[in-house]
Protein 1
Amino acid sequence: MEEHNSGLSKYTSTKLPWVLRYVEAHDDKTTALKRELMFKKQKRKYFEWLFDQPSNILKK
């Protein structure tokens, strides 16, 4: 998050500031990376719904 908000990343520097709104746990890196790939295919409406779900560690 610090790198994104400091403007060091050319892909994210135009959309400042970044705020962490969702975190979920995975048992291993492979599962987490598969989930990340799935996220990259989703629309904004899905994320708005996801932020309020019980799987969001930040909501606990």
Protein 2
Amino acid sequence: MTLNILFFSITFKKREVSLEEAVQQEKVEKLYDQTKDRQISMHRFM
């Protein structure tokens, strides 16, 4: 009789965000919100 057992171990680490990455992400979110607002206003205009 053969018993085959396979174990997996998964580890998650929290990634540190640098100041530059945080500033870039903030800019991206602002641009996304501005674009979304512009699209909504154009949709209402038509």
